[in-house]
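Morning run. Coffee first, then this:
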Amino acid sequence: MAAIAGGIVTGIVLGLYAYQQPDPTNTMETGTKLATDQIRITNGIRHIIPLDEIKSGGPPKDGIPSIDSPRFVNDAGFVSDDDLVIGLSINGQSRAYPLSILVWHEIVNDKIGNTPVAVTYCPLCFTTQVFDRTINEKETEFGTSGKLYNSNLVMYDRNTDSMWSQALGQAIVGELTGYELKRIPFDLAKWSDWKKLNPDTVVLSTDTGHSRPYGSDPYGDYYTDSRVIFPVKNSDDRMHPKEIILGFDHNKSYKAYRLSDVQSQKIVNDTINGKNLVLVSVAPYLVRAFDSMVDGQVLEFTLNENTMTDRQTGSKWSPDGVAMSGPLQGKHLDRISFNPGFWFEWVAFHPGTEAYEPEADN
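And here it is:
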């Protein structure tokens, strides 16, 4: 986390939520809705969580301004090789969104080709997520509500003013309560690694229309100490609160993998509630997950210099999940979206989660 916490400007108050300077491919269908019997109505307000568990984070609505007209550049001299970016490739276009910019905005409303996306980052939880902004066949924008749930970003959509939990990808209060957004697979990577994989990438510009000290990080040592500033419903001491985990859910089963374990093992073949998957560490921070079943056959993979080989057929696969040679040449692995973030956040939302433990001989 040193790359994240570095470059702190002395005197910036810990936590952007105390900073109130006024501003001069997942299988889930977009707009999936929960059963109505899970929705509560209090004083005419539709919600799926207790309203008193939604807390003020400090700034007012839009006090942390989303970026709604993002600009991109080819020359990213303001981004260092070790800076983390959210990397996104859609329809042959690659874009990088530096966390050093997102820490001041948390949401970028963008459109790549015909796909409207919301690129989101909650510094309090180190949660990154990319969503399709299409709801009920209508494109919408998201903004910051100034609220938190389980210390996590609560967004609002500008079509209906419903509130959305970033961690859940779900509307939790308002007209659209219960709807879930489609998650779009992305990479969290060091800038140098993203560039190697995507040499034609463009980068989100600091020309955002807002005056912010980009390159500084107001959170200081928050990323590594044990403090959890805002209330959460559940806690669990199986890991350090700020351990970076990769959280997976499948049919209401939940599992967390330490990023450090996946990076150490390079590749992890596993199952979650009967679903077979493989996690591959492409570079520091950069982990991809795939469904390991192809044409009804479950494959088990090894890794050698970023080339995966399945033990069943000997086919060789790229880090993009494409078979480059062997009997399965041309086949594709389906990529699985997951939730990277701090352990305390994942277990707050998923108290019954399983925690992956490497086998002793790995």
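The helical segments are 2-5, 99-102, 191-197, 259-265, 343-349. Good start to the day.
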